[in-house]
Amino acid sequence: MRPGPAPWLVGEAMSGLELPPHAAALPVLRAVEMHTGGEPLRVVPAGLGPGPEGATLLERRRRAAAELDHARRLLLLEPRGHRGMYGAALVGRSELPGAHLAALFLHGAGYSAMCGHAVLALGRLALDYGLGPAPCRPETRVVIHCPCGPVTAFVPWDGQRSRNPVRFHSMPAFAAAADLTVDVPGYGKVVLDIGYGGAFYAFLSAEKLGLDVCSSSVRDLVDAATAVTEAVKKQFKPHHPDSEDLAFIYGTILTDGKDAFSDEPTTNICVFGDAQVDRSPTGSGVTARIALQYHKRLIKLGQTRTFRSSTTGSLFTGKAVEDKAVLDVLGNVTWRRDSVKAAKEVTLLKETWGCQH
């Protein structure tokens, strides 16, 4: 059985409910509240308002930042949101054939290019609210067009509704820089890696900053990660083979340093945007970290690793499933870079974790 669309998702009045008087100049946005591994997701199925217009999703992302940022602030910031709030706004039809949904990802400081925890949640939303393909057992493939490109979610279906665990196949991920030395004010010179998993992150062990990702205070970890992000932005310029719109440092992920393959979980904390903390292990960050581990020959194709959030203890698992090559052209220099296509799925630590709504 395929569920029909919720009436308000297609613009009809909510059953017997009317909105109280409000300022005509303010947008009315209806949202579905979800979370993945403890990381919130406020989904706006009808989008941020008229528009944003554009021939591509990346162009719509630019237009949203320029023309609809008031809607992002209304959704995510106080008093309706909070410092840790994250959002996704559907934007109607994708220009990519085969995509079931297209989404913009919103955070407290702006717009990201990829969000793994949102992809996992949107896969379930698409089936439960009739916004995607007709569900089928045992799992349904949902193609979600993200600003970084199409990402495929695989969502279990029991005949009535979606279930956990959800997994996805990412866009190709790669190591952008390995063993890069960066001068971080207050911490000195540190060696770190830059990985791409739909967004660019700096990666290093918290120990290099005199901290422990499992026992140091979140405030100390956030301050250190933010200092690293700002230093990397000034000293390293990422390049993306598809679009310079994707070539920016999104944040820093501090780890426990356990990058070699092991059946035991490895712990990390992701600090992105304006010192915002991801309460999940971070979908795009896990993907980038897998790419770095594969690049350094610390893991092999098909080896599954488990990643733990240092703030909530929630778990994601991930593995590299395909070795590809990404062709980069920069000026007159052409080179080939090892790349992996990473698959990731959620593993539930508690029944309350996962894609809930």
UniProtKB/TrEMBL annotation:
Query: Could you tell me the EC number(s) of this protein?
Result: 4.2.1.77
Query: Which InterPro entries did the record assign?
Result: Pro_racemase_fam
- What's an example of a GO molecular-function annotation for this chain? trans-L-3-hydroxyproline dehydratase activity
Q: Does the keyword Lyase apply?
A: yes
Which SUPFAM superfamilies does the UniProt entry name for this protein? Diaminopimelate epimerase-like
- The highest taxon in the source lineage is Eukaryota
According to UniProt, the reaction catalysed is: trans-3-hydroxy-L-proline = 1-pyrroline-2-carboxylate + H2O
Q: Which UniProt keywords apply?
A: Lyase
This protein's assembly is summarised as: Homodimer.
Family membership: Belongs to the proline racemase family.
For this entry, the protein name equals trans-L-3-hydroxyproline dehydratase
**Taxonomic lineage of the native organism:** Eukaryota, Metazoa, Chordata, Craniata, Vertebrata
